[in-house]
Amino acid sequence: MEKRPRSFYVLASIFAIFLVFLYGPTITIAILSFQGPQGGLTFPMRGVSLHWFHDLFQQQAVGDIWGSFARSLVLGLMVMVTTVVVSVMGGLAFRKRFPGSGVIFYLIITSLVIPSILVSLGVGLIFSQTGLSVHWSTSGFGSQLTWTLPFGLLIMFAVFNRFDKSYEEAARDQGASAWQTIRYVVLPIIAPMLIGVALFGFTLSYDEFARTLLTAGSYNTLPLEIYGMTTNVTTPVIFALGTLTTVFSFIIIGVFLTVVVVMRKRQARLGSDAGQGMM
Amino acid sequence: MTDQTHLMPNAHAKSNAQTSRPTRSRAPFSLDRLPGAVTGWLLSLPLALVLAFFLVLPIIMIVIVSFWGATEFSIYPAFQFDNYEFLLTSPVTYQVFLNTIKYAVITWAITLVIGFTVAYFLAFHVRSLTWQIVLFLLCTIPFWTSNIIRMISWIPFLGRNGIANSALISMGVIDEPLEWLLFSDFSVILAFVHLYTLFMVVPIFNTMMRIDKSLIEAAYDNGATGFQTLTNVIIPLTKPGIMIGSIFVVTLVMGDFITVRFMSGSQKANVGRLISNDIALLQYPSAAATAVILLVTVLIVISVLLRFVDIRKEL
Question: Is this prediction's ipTM beyond 0.85?
Fold first, then answer.
């Protein structure tokens, strides 16, 4: 291997600093969440304890952390499944141009760039003016989809642009119907990428704040609950909550990424190179 | 799009299959028998419905309500330009829009420099694909965690008695704690950079990975220096990624209200906060009018940026 140029070491240190910048604050609040009972929002640590984590499991003066966590979890799963299904269908549809595909494409881009608060405000207004009541599982659900679907679709467009169509042709030549081709050829090949879409769907929903602000109704999701806490909680309990939900996110990310790796290993072991060059 | 050329042979194969094997059409409903446009419509129907109900209708609703009137407690249908007149004649509006653009431009410049450098390192200096994927994932994982938590996590750093101030004091750089670290433009932009740099890294890295390495070798072989290769080969070829990253960062910053509110301790304003303040006061028509102007501004910026890149080609 040739010797690395000096620029490598300069750039590598910049990259390392960037990673510290990215993760440093999160690690800091993880450490601070173990503050002793007398501890404050910054260093020094006044003892080390699980006090603030324990506090999370007590009856809170304000809010309902565990209820909001459960709602965020269910909503995240709903958004995840919908995002995967709708994105795959959309991805399949967009392999050919059809009348109206251009309009839908620009709507997807609009959905991506529109300020979140506009979706929140607009959906909230529609529901209030038509006499419907906003609820996280209806208006909140739909508003979040306007954020997760563009990501899912852009991933699917990228996947299908790199998809080798000869696999489908082979299936069709052997007499497979369109549905059989999709079910037994296309879906297994793109499965690892679908896990990626699912990861986007779940995590973006689980962390979404602005689009749920006016559309969740009287039952808060977890980010709304955390936001509420920032205005009236001044103890490390908020760090403990932040640490727990970040750990939860890391676990989810870890699980999804492991599934992707296992799937690709399995594809490789079974001698298939069908999904290659798509990552 | 290259799809159409690809699809032509498929279409032939499809019709051949149907004529030569009539037994297969026994199924009462088969995707094969539908004309292409209908398949496209059916497959994109759920998508179209979601976008219609939760994107197009809300935008229409906001435009309608922006002409309505409001009392202290309720809003009523009307067709009046009062909201716009008030907005466009108030100096506060221009100040706030200017501030929003200031945040967007500064954040854009910083994230571009950092994002480009990081992506350049990953794409051209990391040699094994496995390490590229691992380091790339390290950069993207924070994107899948909560923005609010990531904002909160700056408090121990930037506060009056925070880590930054105590470190600087103990090093003897300053005698008094710096007041402008938290709840200032500085902390707002710091949080924006922290939250959104990866929106630059990902598309730029993606485009860089598709640059044919032989082009760079050719540049070197012809005697170009590293810097000349960078400015004459890599940067022009990375432009689409830069544009996509810029679209993300600019729109996210312009549409933000929570970061500015939280990181400035409600001391700074941007358009998003103007809207959310009106909402808090139940002044929906006024909020809607501001929202319309914000949307128009964002769409103008995006359409300018889109002139430099064909997104459908870049996927």
Answer: yes
Report the top-level CATH class of A64-269.
mainly alpha
CA distance A199 to A192: 11
The model's pTM is 0.87
In this complex, the residue of A15, A113, A116 whose CB is nearest that of residue B302 is A113
Instruction: Delimit the domains of chain A by residue range.
Output: 64-269
- The residues in A 196-215 lying below 8 A from B, measured between CB atoms, are 199-200, 203-204, 206-207, 209-210, 213-214
Structure confidence by residue, pLDDT tens digits, A120-140: 999 999 998 888 888 888 889
Chain B residue whose CA is closest to A83 = B47
The mean predicted confidence, pLDDT, of chain A is: 86
Q: Assess contact for B14 and B32: CB atoms under 8 A.
A: yes
Give the integer Cα–Cα distance in Å for A31 and A45.
Answer: 9
Ordered by where they begin, the domains of chain B are 91-314 (1.10.3720.10)
What is the least distance, in Å, from the CA of B283 to any CA of chain A? 11
pLDDT in tens, B120-156: 999 988 888 888 988 998 888 888 888 888 888 888 8
- Specify whether the CB–CB gap between A88 and A194 falls below 8 A: yes
Which residue from A177, A180, A91, A79 is spatially nearest to B44, judged by alpha carbons? A91
CB A139 within 8 A of CB A217: yes
Quote the tokens at residue A76: 């995240």
> Token pair 């642009």 is at which residue?
A161
Task: Please give the pLDDT value at position A75.
Answer: 95
Contacts of A173 in chain B (CB under 8 A): 13
Contact B145 A207 (CB under 8 A): yes
A 42-61 near B (Cβ less than 8 A): 42-43
Structure confidence at residue A274 (pLDDT) = 60
